[in-house]
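In the design runs reported in the main text, the only information available to the sequence generator was the tokenized backbone. The following block is the verbatim input for one such run; it is reproduced so that readers can re-run the procedure and compare outputs position by position.
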């Protein structure tokens, strides 16, 4: 949570803003980017909106007192101080001293509480949405703000205003205006609202300029990234995967220190459908699926102290919680005074619940393998147990050992048969049994999803994790495939001939330079022909390369096969910016594909075990056409340039 922050401004969100602060604290979020602007704070020279400042003070105090850091955007000229009567807030001040006084006022007011300051926002936007003046004027604005903030507190860190897609060229222009530009800021900032290949491309553009200008040692913060459903509720699952893609991709790029999701909560409707649907939660503060992917990341974990301090908020906003039932077998006690560790009495259980938006069952096969981690105080010699529900509704028991080392230890359990459907007592998904003889102290429980491989489950409705199948509904096009049921499972049927399944893989999993890749395919083994994978290789010069095919043996069963690539060039150069395609080999029969996963093979990796096939289709075990299947989510992405035109602050 220290890596992935949010954009939000509770002081602008109604009268229950302190309640909203508590909700943010209860998530475990450590960074909030907010922008109470100059035009909102200072109504005339030296005259401040005291009611609004009181709100700001209360928000800053509540968040920072509870370990939440604030990135404050210093921006937007007060009309009385502007150099223009036309769109005055987006012009430079007429008198630079007024700007310097404002910066000094805010930095002094929050000295010791806020140490990170972003100077303006999207000053490079081609439409001049937020900055009407020249690059040279922005350089002066930055230099003066930096000097004042550092004079107030030498610990202050300055971020250059977050750039849009045009930012790399604009950054070069700023350096041409003032070669000393690099001394005016400590952290590079830009925004990215594009798919994972373009996240990498945007990063490479900035790194190239930073290296050229000798500032490559500065950390990079992505101060805005996000995805809008445009009001299509079916695309909330896409937004959730977008959260994963943004985190996994940008975390993999050297130098990126933090990213911020825009935005935390959807605003009340105001006529801009795109801007109303970027949030991790609805305007009424109901968390969406994307929220739990954000809060849980790849490893949802308990936070016992937060759950104790904010029981109501944490119950809704922590992805993994324990059931605190004072009576009976779930009677859990505090082990540490602050509640950061818990004691399970002998003969009792800690029942844990995973939010269904994060994992339900095994997420249709997307998360067929999870790792459960338990950190416990190793005292005594009697075993303890982890118990969880399986798909056959039986309780599986795994043993945790105690060897009396009198230290905190973490035991990990890799599970492939879980069925997290709230089947335990109190609606839990699994439980920790202290054993008959000894109490067990626990400081952390975590449920970790695999983020390598990426995977897509194919059927009437596709389910994606860090990759997608290209959907084309036109039967005349070669990316057309048919939803089908065969052998008791939903899948996609590729007609023999010139039809293909195209796949895009998140660049955080596999991208250019990752040559050692395994592609796994769950296929129906009907016929004795071949399943063919085509991809770009490091030596193909743009020509398609066929991998060693999977040869079917006509068993009429579902099988899992693999393609092993050592020269992969997954650079999004196929049609639809895809990385590879699967087809029938034009050898006389169609293919039926139910799942495809992609794993980057790092040194020392073992070949993955074949996954548990996805469950059968809904009540249909016969071969049937897919003429009336469920809707398939179609992915779309917005470019930063198109998006920022609609941005409101």
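Verbatim output:
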């Amino acid at each position: 949570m220290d890596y992935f922050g949010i954009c939000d401004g509770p002081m602008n969100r109604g009268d229950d803003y302190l309640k909203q602060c508590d909700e943010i604290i209860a998530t475990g979020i450590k960074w909030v980017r907010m922008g109470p602007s100059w035009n909102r704070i200072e109504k005339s020279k030296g005259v401040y909106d005291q009611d609004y400042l009181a709100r700001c003070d209360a928000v800053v105090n509540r968040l920072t007192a509870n370990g939440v850091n604030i990135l404050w955007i210093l921006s937007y000229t007060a009309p009385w101080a502007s150099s223009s009567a036309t769109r005055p807030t987006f012009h430079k001040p007429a008198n630079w001293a007024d700007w310097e006084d404002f910066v000094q006022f805010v930095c002094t007011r929050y000295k010791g509480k806020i140490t990170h300051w972003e100077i303006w926002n999207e000053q490079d936007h081609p439409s001049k949405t937020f900055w009407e003046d020249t690059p040279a004027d922005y350089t002066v604005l930055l230099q003066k703000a930096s000097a004042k903030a550092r004079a107030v507190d030498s610990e202050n860190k300055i971020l250059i205003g977050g750039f849009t897609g045009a930012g790399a060229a604009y950054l070069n222009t700023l350096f041409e205006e003032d070669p000393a530009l690099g001394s005016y800021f400590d952290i590079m900032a830009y925004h990215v609202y594009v798919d994972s290949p373009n996240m990498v491309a945007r990063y490479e553009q900035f790194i190239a300029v930073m290296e050229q200008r000798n500032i490559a040692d500065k950390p990079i913060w992505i101060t805005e990234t996000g995805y809008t459903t445009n009001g299509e509720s079916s695309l909330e699952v896409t937004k959730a995967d977008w959260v994963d893609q943004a985190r996994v991709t940008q975390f993999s790029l050297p130098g990126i220190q933090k990213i911020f999701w825009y935005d935390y909560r959807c605003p009340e409707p105001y006529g801009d459908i795109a801007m109303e649907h970027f949030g991790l939660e609805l305007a009424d503060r109901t968390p969406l699926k994307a929220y739990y992917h954000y809060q849980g990341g790849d490893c949802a974990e308990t936070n016992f102290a937060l759950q104790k301090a904010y029981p109501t908020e944490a119950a809704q906003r922590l992805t993994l919680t324990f059931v605190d039932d004072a009576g009976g077998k779930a009677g859990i006690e505090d082990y540490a005074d602050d509640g950061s560790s818990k004691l399970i009495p002998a003969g009792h259980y800690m029942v844990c619940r995973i939010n269904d938006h994060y994992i339900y069952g095994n997420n249709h096969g997307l998360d067929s393998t999870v790792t459960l981690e338990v950190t416990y105080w190793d005292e005594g010699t009697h075993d303890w147990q982890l118990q969880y529900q399986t798909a056959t509704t039986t309780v599986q028991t795994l043993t945790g050992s105690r060897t009396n080392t009198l230290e905190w230890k973490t035991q990990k359990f890799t599970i492939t048969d879980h069925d997290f459907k709230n089947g335990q007592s109190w609606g839990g998904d699994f439980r920790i049994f202290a054993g008959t003889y000894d109490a067990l102290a626990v400081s952390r429980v975590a449920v970790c999803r695999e983020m390598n491989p990426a995977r897509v489950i194919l059927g009437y409705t596709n389910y994606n994790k860090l990759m997608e199948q290209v959907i084309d509904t036109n039967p005349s096009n070669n990316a057309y495939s048919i939803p089908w049921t065969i052998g008791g499972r939903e899948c996609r049927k590729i007609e023999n001939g010139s039809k293909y399944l195209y796949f895009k893989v998140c660049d955080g999993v596999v991208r250019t330079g990752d040559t050692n890749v395994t592609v796994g395919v769950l296929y129906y083994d009907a016929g004795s022909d071949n399943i063919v994978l085509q991809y770009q290789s490091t030596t193909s010069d743009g020509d398609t390369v066929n991998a060693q095919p999977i040869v079917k043996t006509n068993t009429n069963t579902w099988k899992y096969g693999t393609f092993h690539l050592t020269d992969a060039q997954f650079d999004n150069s196929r049609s639809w910016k895809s990385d590879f395609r699967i087809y029938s080999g034009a050898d006389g029969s169609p293919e039926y594909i139910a799942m495809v996963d992609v794993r980057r093979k790092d040194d020392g990796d073992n070949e993955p075990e074949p996954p548990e096939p996805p469950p059968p289709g809904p009540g249909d075990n016969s071969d049937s056409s897919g003429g009336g299947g469920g809707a398939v989510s179609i992915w779309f992405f917005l470019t930063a340039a198109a998006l920022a035109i609609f941005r409101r602050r």
